[in-house]
Design a protein that fits this description.
Strand content of chain A: 5-15%
Order of helices and strands of chain A: HHHHEEHH
Structural class of chain A: mainly alpha
Radius of gyration of chain A: 18 Å
Largest sheet of chain A: 2 strands, antiparallel
Oligomer: homodimer
Strand order of the largest sheet of chain A: 1-2
Largest interface: A-B, 102 and 108 residues
Number of strands of chain A: 2
DNA sequence: TATTGTTATACTCTATAACTATA
DNA sequence: TATAGTTATAGAGTATAACAATA
């Protein structure tokens, strides 16, 4: 073995609430109890991580992972898109996408169809059950959003979004615009 | 004996900026281009993830990972604490902590000492090089913080922290207070 | 020859639990 | 017997690259 360090992790999975969310790895924070504590970077990162974790828990009853949710949503928004097109949108390697689609297809939430124009590609469509589950997941997501904003009034909510976007723009993010990346969102994990 | 280190490559390369930070997996986002887009949960999660990723890149030149940074910082704040005490603070399993300490000790950034009062425990101390590297890392972290807040004035910065803490409190977080968790912070990943 | 989807292989990280040396 | 640290084993997840079918 090597030792090395360890590095990354990510994880996922598991979670529920374990300290180290499944694989969600988590690198490390800038401080333990010193100055960086009231830092914007540290705070945004911490809260964002907690939100992602909670979102995963929220979806757990549906047996759905955040990335699966993102995939169903992407297909719903553009039915008939190819597997690799979806992979590109969600920033998931094509080889990984196979397993994701396999799992959801086995549960009959979506189906692969052959594209008559190009028999190499497989187009993706949600099944009725898939639409239903997605709708349910969207309700849960909306409820979570309400819960998160319980201590904010409308103006404060908009202000928070504005401030966050300014921070995000410093990193090249264009949140609130579109473009999503399966892992950037409530992903973390 | 413990590991050989010899491997050190991982560090580098990994992430830098690859879509999937090292191993940072990333679950998934709540939406692809629909409603959840201007959602607080989605935005906080996305920005937090980006910040964590950037923090990792910021530390890369020092060959330091976020969690290693957190460990050095924890030791600095409480020199002489035991390995397992540090593990508990950072929410890292004791068995994993071994590799972390091994790596940093091999680089002579910290050292293990025996506790004369209880020879089972190993107390941790930073070496001069460790203090130096940590100081350097703190400078980089401060620079990142400034960069992130470049579009905010003092009042806006405080306001953002306040709003984020309100969201965090909905999840049981007590950011800005203390208590850190190696992975929650600029960790994510 | 290039591309889509798939499979195969190797590697990393993690957790669990055994093991040692102390107490 | 219990605890701090260590090591060993096994498993989950990913990336890389090789592969088949189609273009």
């Amino acid at each position: 073995m090597r030792v090395d360090e360890t590095t990354k992790q990510h994880g996922e999975g598991d979670d529920e609430d374990g300290p180290w969310p499944g694989g969600v790895v988590a690198p490390a924070p800038p401080s333990i109890d010193g100055p960086p504590f009231r830092a914007v970077g540290f705070t945004v990162s911490s809260v964002g991580y907690a939100v992602a974790r909670r979102f995963r828990q929220t979806l757990a009853p549906l047996q759905l992972e955040p990335r699966e949710f993102a995939l169903l949503r992407a297909i719903s928004a553009a039915e008939g898109l190819s597997q690799q097109a979806a992979a590109e949108r969600l920033q998931i390697p094509p080889s990984r996408m196979v397993a994701f689609v396999d799992a959801l297809e086995a549960r009959e939430l979506l189906e692969r169809r052959h594209n008559p124009l190009d028999r190499r590609t497989r187009t993706l469509y949600l099944t009725p059950a898939g639409h239903e589950l997605l709708a349910h997941a969207l309700v849960l997501a909306a409820e979570l959003e309400n819960h998160l904003c319980a201590q904010l009034n409308g103006a404060e909510r908009e202000l928070l979004l504005d401030l966050l976007q300014r921070v995000g723009s410093q990193l090249g993010l264009e949140v609130g615009k579109h473009a999503v990346h399966a892992h950037s969102a409530l992903a973390h994990e």
